[in-house]
Inverse folding.
C-alpha cells in the first residue's frame, strides 16, 4: 500500500526496520511480537489524522496496530499521501530531518534495533589439535573440517534410522 500510494519511495532495511525513503527516511515499519508500528517522519500529518486512527502516538509520531484487518487502511493511505506531499514541500524549503533526528523522535536506539549477528557453534573433534589459521569463511581449519564432517555425517543418516534410535533409547529408559 505504501509503494502504491507513495510513488518514488525507495525501500531499504536498517536497524531491523523496513524504511521507506523520499529525500531521507519518510516511514519505518517495525514488526513486533504481537503488533506492528508504522513510524511517520511528518509529525504534523500524524497529528492531523489522530482522531481517525486508534493506536496513534502523536508524541512519537507512529501508529501501532495488532490486527491489520481492523486498521482503517483508507486513513493510513491518506497519511501516506499527505506525508509524501509534506516531504516534497519540505525538500523544496530545504528543511529535511536527518535520520538521527527521526530515530530520536521515534525513540529508537540504533544499538537496540540492529539485527543480531548469526551465531554458529563449531566444536573440534577430540584428539585433533586446533590451529590458529583460518579458512576463507573465517573458521579455523580444524573447526572447518569438523563442521564439514558433521554435515556429511548428518546427510548420510536417514531420518527413519535416527528416529528409530531415539525411540529405542526412550524404551530402554
Amino acid at each position: 500500500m505504501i509503494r502504491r500510494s507513495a510513488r518514488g519511495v525507495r525501500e531499504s532495511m536498517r536497524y531491523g526496520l523496513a524504511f521507506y525513503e523520499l529525500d531521507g527516511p519518510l516511514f519505518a515499519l517495525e514488526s513486533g511480537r504481537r503488533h506492528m508500528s508504522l513510524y511517520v517522519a511528518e509529525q504534523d500529518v500524524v497529528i492531523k489524522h489522530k482522531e481517525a486512527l486508534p493506536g496513534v502516538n502523536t508524541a512519537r509520531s507512529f501508529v501501532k496496530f495488532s490486527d491489520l484487518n481492523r486498521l482503517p487502511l483508507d486513513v493510513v493511505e491518506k497519511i501516506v499521501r499527505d506525508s509524501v506531499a509534506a516531504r516534497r514541500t519540505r525538500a523544496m524549503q530545504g528543511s529535511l530531518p536527518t535520520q538521527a533526528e527521526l530515530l530520536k523522535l521515534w525513540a529508537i536506539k540504533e544499538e537496540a534495533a540492529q539485527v543480531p549477528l548469526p551465531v554458529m557453534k563449531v566444536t573440534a573433534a577430540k584428539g585433533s589439535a586446533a590451529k590458529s589459521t583460518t579458512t576463507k569463511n573465517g573458521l579455523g581449519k580444524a573447526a572447518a573440517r569438523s563442521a564439514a564432517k558433521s554435515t556429511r555425517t548428518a546427510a548420510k543418516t536417514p531420518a527413519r534410522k535416527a528416529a528409530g534410535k531415539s525411540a529405542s533409547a526412550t524404551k530402554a529408559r
Observations:
- The chain is about 40% helix and 15% strand.
